[in-house]
């Protein structure tokens, strides 16, 4: 029967195996994954929310795999959003319909009331599946518009009819100043935010488009990501992490 020395060695081996996992967890608390998006109209910088871990991990995986490099922003609607991530857009001919390409899986919805569709929000596209699960790869970035009291109230009525999330008074104030697309709240997962390069979203959104909302001139993307200390991110970009 094994004695104490054997049990001690087994415990020591287990401890050694756990150290990398603990270190990784600690690093992820202190650091964040910063995504740099290069487009034909300039660069954007994004962060991904810890509150939506499934979407965050999936997006990091795709960026690290260079999945998005060479894809297009295939759908743009001014005062609403710009959308990309369709793998079929990499080799699409001019004028072809896009938006149906995917990676063969979905990501479960992660609706967090404190994460809403203000300008620059990174959201997950989806089809009309009843679980509101997200596409495994397609995403959109909100441009939206600034809302007056009457217009915002119409948006809130629309949200209620869709069983979405009614924005809090603080969120409503953001919609009336910075702007956004409130009717999406509680129906599409927000999992990140543009922290630099909002003007690029405006530039892309105003380009000429066809009847399917595909830009008449292809708009390419390329993405890279790296882990950066959260304190550095806040200092460099003036970004306040959501509580």
Summarize the topology.
Elements: H1 4-30, E1 31-39, E2 42-48, H2 53-64, E3 73-77, E4 81-84, E5 106-107, E6 121-124, E7 134-135, E8 139-142, H3 149-161, H4 169-177, E9 190-196, H5 198-205, E10 221-229, H6 230-237
Antiparallel strand pairs: 1-2, 1-10, 2-9, 3-4, 4-8, 5-7, 6-8, 6-9
In short:
This protein is α+β, with helices and mostly antiparallel strands and 243 residues long. It has helices at 4-30, 53-64, 149-161, 169-177, 198-205, 230-237; strands at residues 31-39, 42-48, 73-77, 81-84, 106-107, 121-124, 134-135, 139-142, 190-196, 221-229.
Encode the helix/strand succession as letters: HEEHEEEEEEHHEHEH
Helical proportion, percent range = 25-40%
**Strand order, biggest sheet?**
3-4-8-6-9-2-1-10
Strand content: 15-25%
The dominant shape is: globular
Low-pLDDT stretches: 21-26
End-to-end Cα distance: 53 Å
Beta strand count: 10
**Rg measurement, Å:** 21 Å
Query: What do the pLDDT scores average to?
Result: 92
* Main β-sheet description: 8 strands, antiparallel
Class computed from helices, strands and strand pairing: alpha+beta
- How many separate helices? 6
What would you note in describing this structure?
- By secondary structure, the chain is of the alpha+beta class.
- Helices cover 32% and strands 22% of the residues.
- It has helices spanning 4-30, 53-64, 149-161, 169-177, 198-205, 230-237, and strands spanning 31-39, 42-48, 73-77, 81-84, 106-107, 121-124, 134-135, 139-142, 190-196, 221-229.
- It has an eight-stranded antiparallel sheet with strand order 3-4-8-6-9-2-1-10.
- The protein is globular, with a radius of gyration of 21 Å.
- The model is unreliable at 21-26 (pLDDT under 50).
């Amino acid at each position: 029967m094994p004695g104490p020395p054997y049990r001690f060695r087994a415990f020591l081996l287990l401890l050694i195996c756990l150290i990398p996992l603990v270190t990784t967890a600690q690093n992820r608390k202190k650091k964040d994954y910063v995504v740099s998006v290069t487009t034909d109209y300039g660069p954007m910088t994004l962060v991904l929310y810890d509150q939506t871990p499934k979407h965050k991990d999936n997006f990091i995986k795709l960026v690290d795999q260079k999945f998005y490099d060479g894809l297009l922003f295939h759908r743009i609607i001014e005062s609403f959003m710009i959308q990309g991530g369709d793998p079929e857009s990499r080799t699409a001919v001019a004028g072809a319909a896009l938006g149906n390409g995917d990676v063969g899986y979905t990501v479960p919805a992660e609706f967090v009331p404190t994460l809403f569709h203000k300008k620059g929000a990174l959201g997950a596209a989806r089809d009309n599946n009843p679980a509101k699960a997200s596409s495994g790869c397609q995403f959109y970035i909100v441009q939206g518009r600034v809302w007056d009291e009457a217009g915002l109230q119409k948006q809130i009525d629309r949200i209620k009819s869709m069983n979405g999330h009614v924005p809090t008074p603080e969120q409503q104030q953001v919609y009336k100043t910075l702007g956004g697309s409130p009717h999406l709240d509680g129906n599409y997962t927000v999992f990140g935010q543009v922290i630099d390069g909002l003007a690029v979203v405006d530039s892309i959104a105003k380009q000429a488009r066809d009847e399917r909302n595909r830009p008449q001139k292809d708009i390419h993307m390329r993405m890279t990501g790296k882990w950066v200390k959260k304190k550095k991110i806040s200092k460099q970009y003036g970004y306040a992490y959501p509580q």
